[in-house]
Structures are given as C-alpha cells and as structure tokens.
Sequence to fold (840 residues):
Amino acid sequence: MAETLDQATSLRRQPKQARSQERVQQILDAAEQLFIEVGYEQTTTRAIATQAQVPVGSLYQFFPDKAALLKALAHRYFEQEYQLFVQLHAELATVPIAVYVDRMVDAFDQFAIDHPGYQAVLSQMIDLMTVADAATYNEFDPQIGLELAQFLARRNPTLAPAQCDLIATVALKTVNELLWLSLTGDRTFRQQLIAETKVLMTAYLQTYGV
Amino acid sequence: MAETLDQATSLRRQPKQARSQERVQQILDAAEQLFIEVGYEQTTTRAIATQAQVPVGSLYQFFPDKAALLKALAHRYFEQEYQLFVQLHAELATVPIAVYVDRMVDAFDQFAIDHPGYQAVLSQMIDLMTVADAATYNEFDPQIGLELAQFLARRNPTLAPAQCDLIATVALKTVNELLWLSLTGDRTFRQQLIAETKVLMTAYLQTYGV
Amino acid sequence: MAETLDQATSLRRQPKQARSQERVQQILDAAEQLFIEVGYEQTTTRAIATQAQVPVGSLYQFFPDKAALLKALAHRYFEQEYQLFVQLHAELATVPIAVYVDRMVDAFDQFAIDHPGYQAVLSQMIDLMTVADAATYNEFDPQIGLELAQFLARRNPTLAPAQCDLIATVALKTVNELLWLSLTGDRTFRQQLIAETKVLMTAYLQTYGV
Amino acid sequence: MAETLDQATSLRRQPKQARSQERVQQILDAAEQLFIEVGYEQTTTRAIATQAQVPVGSLYQFFPDKAALLKALAHRYFEQEYQLFVQLHAELATVPIAVYVDRMVDAFDQFAIDHPGYQAVLSQMIDLMTVADAATYNEFDPQIGLELAQFLARRNPTLAPAQCDLIATVALKTVNELLWLSLTGDRTFRQQLIAETKVLMTAYLQTYGV
DNA sequence: TATGAATGAGACTTCATTCAT
DNA sequence: GATGAATGAAGTCTCATTCAT
Fold:
C-alpha cells in the first residue's frame, strides 16, 4: 500500500523538516476546506495560501500545480480510509456477514462524517481525469477492493476470483455512494439511509453465501 | 411533470419559432458534447456557440448564463429519462420483481449509453449547487422516485410510505451509480456490472417482499 | 512577396474594419516603442496595451501572444524595407556600382533612422528562435537578398548563381550591421561610419567586377 | 589590459582559494551552456546553480545578480579572444595584408567555433544595456580595436588616427558578424562565408594601402 | 562560510458577458 | 432581433534574491 499511496509523485519536494511538514498539512487542510465550501474550480491557489497562512510561493514549492493538491488530498483520504478498513477488517474476519456489514458500514459512515471533503475531492478528480488521459486512473486506491475480494473468496471458495473482484467493486461503490448521499440530509435521513445501506449490502452478499 | 421540467425557468426567451427552437437544440447539443469532452469548466461559451454554429450573442438570447445551459441539459435528460421510465413502468406493473429489475436496469443502461453526458452534467450541477444556494436543488427531478415509491407501496401494502420513499431513493441512486460506473469500462465490464446490478437490486427488493 | 510577408499567420484575427486596423497599428506602435526603450523581455503586454490605450483583452484579440507582436513588427519592417529597396533598385539598374552602393547605403541608413526598433526586434527574434524550433527561420524575409543576387548575376554573368547568393548575403548582412552600429553613436560617428560602409561595399563589389 | 578585463568589478568576492575559483568556473560554464541552449532570460539562476552543482546561495556569493554572470562571461571571452589576437598579431606584423587577413579570419573563426556562447552573451549584453544606463558600455573590450588601429597607422602613416580607429572598428565589427552568421549554417556555408569574409576584408583594407 | 527554503510582486493570458451597430 | 468585437478582472504560476540557520 505504501507505494500506491506514496505522495512522492504529487509532491514537488519531500518535506524533511518538521516546519515544512506542518506547512504541507496546513496547505492541505486549507485546500480541503475551500474545496468543500466553494468547490475545486472556484477555489484559487491564492485563497488556499492565504487560508493556510503561507505565501503562494511556498504552496508551489510543495505542489507543482493546483491539481496536485487534489491528488494529495485524495492520497491522504485513501491512507486514512485504508487504515480504518484494515484494522476493522482484521477484527471481523470470522463474524457473520450481517455483522461484518453492520460494523463496516458504521465505520465508513464515521469516516465520511470525519472527512466531508472526500466526496468533493473524488468527484473532482474524476472530472479532471475526463480531461486528462485516463492513465491517471491507477492513482486511485484499489487496495480495499482487493482485500475485500480476497475476503469473499475465503468466505466462499466456490466463487471465481473475477466474480469476487466484481462483487467487491459493486459493494464498495454502492456503500460509498449511499453514505455520501446520507451526508446531504439531516440526522434522521442519515440514520435511515445507513440502516438501508446495511439491508442492501447484507441481502446482496448473502446471495453469494459469504 | 411538465411543469417541473419546464425549461421556462432557465430559458431567457421561449422560442416560439421553429428557427429558434432549432438553435436552442443546436446549442444544447454542442454544450453536451463539449461538457463530455472537456468538462464544464473547461468549456467556453464561445466554444459552444462556435460548435453550434451560432453567434455568442444568440446563445445569450436563449440562456442567461453558462449555468443555464447545464440546467437545461439536465432538464432535457430528466424529461427523456422520465418518459422512458413511465412507459416501461406501465408495462411491468404486475411482473415478478426480478423481471421488473431486469427490464428496468436494461432500460436505464440503454439510457446511460444514449446519453453519455448525463453523469457529467449531473455531477457538475452538484458542484455548482455547493456554491449556489440550495434552493436550486428543487430543480432536480424527483418524479421517478415518487412513482417508484408508490409502486413499492402497491406491491407490499405493509410498507410505510416513508419506508417506500427510502427504498426507492436507495434503489435509484444505486442503479444510477453502478450504471455510470459501468460506462467507464469496456464492453465485458459493462455487461458484468449490469448483471451484478440486477442481482443486487433483486436481492434488495426481495427483502421487502415486493 | 505578399505571401511571405503576409501577417495572417501571426494575427489572430484579420482586422476588417477601419477601427480595428487602427487599433492594430496603435498596438504595434506601442510595442515598437517599448521594445526599443526597455527591451522585449522587460516589456509587459499590459504596458503595451496601456501605451496603446486599449484594454489587454483587445491586444489578445489580435495577437495570440507576446511573441506575435514581435513577428508582426518584423513583418511590418520587412514590408517597408522591401518597398524602399525595390523602388530604388529599379532606378539604379544601370548606374556604376559605386553610385549604386552610395545611393543604396544612404537609403538603408534613412530606413534605419526611421525604424529605430528594427535592430531590437530582429535581434530579439533571433533569440526567440534559439529557444523555439529553427523552422520559424523562414519567416525572415529573403526577398531583398534574392533580388540583389539576380542583380549581381546580370551585372557579371560569369558569376555562378551560388556565388551571387553568397555575395548578396554578405553585402546585406554587413551593411545592416554597420548601419545599426552607426545608430549607437552621435551624428559625426554615424556619417563617418556610413562613408566607411560605402568604401567597404564598393571595394568588395568591385572585386567581382559588377 | 589586465585591469580592463579584471573581473573584480562584477565579482562580489575575489576567490582566493582553489575551491572557490573552481566553483566560479563551474558556475560560469553552467551559465554559458544554459545561455546558449535556452537563452539568457529563460535561464534561471537556480538552473545555473543546479547545473554547476553548487547551491544557489553560493552563486550569489560570487555574483551579485544574474546580469553579473553575463558580464563575467563576456570578460572571459574578451580575455581569451585578446590573447589569441595578440599572439597572432605579433606573428603577422610584417606579412602582406592579404595574408594577415587570411590568418586572422581563420583564427577568429576558430575562436567563434570554440566559444559558441560569445554571440548569445554579447547580444544579450547589448539588450541589457538598452535598459540600464549606458555607463555599462565601457565594460566592453576596446583593446583589440585599439591595437588594430595602431597597426593600420604603422602600415600606412598617411592615415589619420581617427581614420584608423574607424577602419578598425568597421573591420572588427564586420568580421565578427560574418563569422557569427557563418555559425548558423552547415559546414559548407561556413567555409564559403569565411572565404568571402577574407575577400571582403582584403579588398577593404587594400583600399587604404595598408 | 555555506545553504536552500522562503518570499510575493508581477507576468501572461483567458473568458463570461455586454452592447453598439 | 442578431451579431461579435470589446472589456478587464482575475487566475495560475515563476523566479531573482534574501537570510536564518
């Protein structure tokens, strides 16, 4: 995972010193907040720098261009999401699928709440990729999907690997979208949608006897 | 529905003459193509006008600003999607839910193929709404969801109306996202994902005995 | 000649109306003055626009970028220089070479005085070409050289065409450089240098019996 | 001459130690290469430092600013060119002028080949002088011209000193320009142009009976 | 003395929208 | 109504130079 999520590719300079690392985080935090508030395109690099209380020049010392901020944020999200998943996944290796779904959806829900910019950043990255070559696509984190597919294969060895990949993809995509949707509503709506997401996922996975 | 989707709100002038209606369609077609190809933000109004073979001034006679083109496109999609749905929905009023899902997913898949800009336009509208006041939200078409909820209620009268609304929302959102995802892959991937979508939806709806 | 010096390649839009043509000239005049005063690199497009009393946007309506101003100026110089040359050349078809040189050098001297930016523009274009591909080189006007070579061939038919080309190149280059050098000094220096240039050229051409 | 070309004026610190002298040369070599390759303006001080494998800070310890690099390079060229000239000049004190021209042009040609940056540096210095006060002008090396003028006076004592100065100036300027021009072409062009330069110079100087 | 991260003014260029014709 | 030239605010990014360490 380390390689996939390494920020080296999108960082102009690897911050070695504590002060620099702080600055990078400040910049990313500022970018995240502004991307959420006014959207990626409407956010100016100068606004990010101002918000982060650094000169624009410093921003460009760490990030080659505006898009790099987006990528770096995505990397940061992926890293955190992956760590969350890995830990919980280990704990739930042998529980019934309904429990697995219940706990996992709750965890992802919490992640979505903690990282309100995830959706905005991801959706903008997809937009950017529409323009650029699709080669950038492999920047996206496939780790969770792979682990989930292996999990399914262990649970039901009769499932073909390709089948497991597909199910994992569908499950992740669906849960992600529904949780993001849940964030657009009030507390009640969110809770209901989470409950519904669990029903949906459990029914789906039970179909495959996992 | 006609009222909801009426373009009056986003059209500066209701084109009465055939020539004008033609121009509006040309402009929307050009906008659609460019939004798909290079994205909303990267598309200039002048490029749209050029592609549509109309002067920029004419574009602004029909659309107050660039965002209006996005809204108009969304309306056009909603109208077409709704007609597709209504017709098929009537035909499938009494078939088993698995058949309903099968036919409906195929239809939506075909719609997604026929309207490759749907995803781009919708996702961009969401971005724009982040910035603008949420009042724009009611521009979105809730019709299909409402009809689907009623359908569920008819199929299983023990379900509460709120419950039906929620299920309908979940079902629509999920199918939409998975079909859009399917468009990003090759033919094989698309077919597999469509099949998987049917499995997922059928399992889900059968949970509720509809 | 018209084709070679046509400005179509460097003008974004061919100004059709009198007002636009005026603007283009204003912009070029402003660019010329500033290029002379502070040099090409130190001149900002905004300064050119301000000096020409047009908004920057208008500048970019006619010229795709800063370099296009340089090219357009060069074209303008070439055109004027060529006309000057052609007219005088016709008049001097049969005079002794010393007279030809005398009159021609005087004419070029007057041109250099009238177009103080010629040197700056040309030298900057050469710098720009160092960076860009050398394909741009054919933008330079070879017309005068060709005509001069033919002239030499007529005067002394024993000279090979290639030889004539070379002599013409040397003569033009030398006269140009010396006249430019003359502009860097005071009136006396200029007059002395012009006289010297005539001595040099006459001696050179008489070597070939033309 | 040593004083005139002394680098003290443009060097911030006279490098006393071997290590420092090495660094200065590395920096100048790097600057020369980059000035040739991408031009003075397009070359960043950081790029020069990187290429020279020294930190930017060190560069600024030896050179007060970017322009100082240009001046220092010019000084280095002048010094080398002067040494070349002085030695050959002594050897050719009494040969016929045609031989003098022949040998001297060949030597200058070799110098131009060995120092491809000469032209770029000189032409850029002229540009810079346009901007700065003309006081910088005396930085240019007049030595060769002076010696040449004296040489002419010795050869033909009837020539006034001012006349000699002028002839020397014309001769040097002309040879320089033609040799630089020769570098822009292929081998054949270069050889032809050199031959032509000799014809031109010999004819010119013979006019004055030197 | 040596280093290289930090700075921020300012450069070029774009483009949604208007309005005189 | 139709046209498209005109506008200028604003955006992204660069880079010579400094100075704290």
